[in-house]
Amino acid sequence: MNYLETIKNITKDKNKRVENLVFLVILLVVLLIAINVIFSNKDKNSNNTSSNQNIIDNSSNTSSNTQSELETKLANVLSQISGVSEVSVVVTYSQDSKQNVAYNTKESEKDGEKTSEKSVAYNEDGSKKTAIVESIEMPKVEGILVVAKGASSVDIRSKIATAIATVTGIPVYKVQVFEKQG
Fold it and tell me: Which of 35, 56, 57, 159 lies deepest, with the highest CB count within 10 Å?
């Protein structure tokens, strides 16, 4: 049978025509709702991804500040050692610091199946949202390089390396000390 003939046969009977139109309208409404749900879920996922990216950006700024603070503190302390001056310190890390954020967990049970949904917990201050941070994992120090005036003797190099190992908790062999030119 041809499709056009089928449509003509359906439209001949007025009762069938009304029923088919109602069915078509209901089908279109269901289709529109389904499309709306699908696209709204994609928008929510993209918003969560962008907010998580902001959290990551903020943590990298914090970690670089903390890393340069350690270098500055070490340089200041080492320059106070007798015979040592003009100290430069470089610290290498295995990774950046990591922020562990708090999550809101929503659990539900439907038809005997348990589902849970996690979302990042925020503090809202006016129009600004900031993630709630549970803990911050500081980066692991891999090695330290020190260049200082007065570090020509083995005794002073040993004092510098021991001081750094004590402060940072790394072994002495991961600290290199050199004499500064000039």
Answer: 159
The answer to whether the CB of 104 falls within 8 A of the CB of 118 is yes
> What is the pLDDT, as a whole number, of residue 65?
60
Same domain? For 32 and 70 the reply is yes
Q: Is the CA virtual torsion 131, 137, 142, 147 positive or negative?
A: positive
Mark whether 47 and 11 lie in a shared domain.
yes
Assess whether 106 and 164 both reside in one domain: no
Residue-wise pLDDT tens digits, 50-59: 444 444 445 4
Instruction: Write out pLDDT tens, residues 6-43.
Output: 666 666 666 677 777 777 788 888 888 888 888 776 55
Q: In this structure, are 112 and 142 located in the same domain?
A: no
40-48 contacts, C-beta under 8 A, 24 or more apart: 48/119, 48/120
Instruction: Confirm if 71 and 89 have CB atoms less than 8 A apart.
Output: yes
Q: Is the same domain home to 93 and 166?
A: yes
Cα-based distances in Å from 21 to 15, 139, 144: 10, 66, 78
Q: Is 116 helix (H, G, I), strand (E, B) or coil?
A: strand
- Which domain covers residue 64, as residue numbers? 3-97+138-179
